[in-house]
Specification:
Layout: H1 3-6, H2 23-36, H3 58-68, H4 80-93, H5 96-109, H6 115-128, E1 133-136, E2 139-142, H7 146-158, H8 163-177, H9 184-202, H10 210-221, H11 225-237, H12 257-279
Amino acid sequence: MDFSQRMGLAPVHVVAQTESIDGELLVSLWNVICLQLFSQYRPGNHIGIDILAHSNFNELALKVYSGFFKKPVDFAPESWKSFKQELRDFFFKSPWHRIYSFLEFLVSINYGNSSGQLVREFNKVLERENSAYRFLSGCVTPITSTEEVKEVESAIGKSDRYAGVRTHLQTALGLLTDRENPDYRNSIKESISAVESLAKKLVDDDKATLGQALKTLETKHGLHTSLKSAFMTLYGYTSDASGIRHGLLDGDKPCTKADARFMLICCSAFINFAIDSIEE
């Protein structure tokens, strides 16, 4: 993260794009279509005249016009250049959900036997750009709920008066969503550090442990014993002999994006719960 993001003056990447597609994701998806499908276009004549009806993409154009746009096929552009431009205008001006509908349509028609490669490349882009969706069985399917994303956003917003908590959460999010060099292990460490930072504030002791903070919530704010136990167990996972807080040993399984996302969402939810409990 840069200075503005660390200070909370500019947003870091969201944990997952749920009901939006940012510019980088949009361009990346369009590039997949161009490279994996549109690159197969052939004019169908030896002098290369741009007449769509003579090309190998005439059937594709008719399928898109009739099956997706629901327009009369005799309204379709006569040239491939014009047709591609119309698709491009649609793609870069439409709401996010229509983009995903269009991707599904392209996969469903399997034009030129392209579906398998399209799905593989779409999923690479969706994962890299932190989309909350993936192609599963030919359909764009949510893998992260809006509610989970809101937990992280809410925790960062609520922790304004807890500078240490906010910094750790923002750092965890930045490490998780870094498109070039994600660091899942250290993202998990930062998520847990955010909880520890809040614990010290709750008991007004810089040396306080999470256990002490949970005990305070249990006795003063009615934290259920089972919830306390569950979070202590999860916390212990990061601190045992082969846990996150220690160096990797031979044979240890590296942390995954799913691990880091789960921990960030879980810790954010706990921080929201703790702050809400104090303020009630």
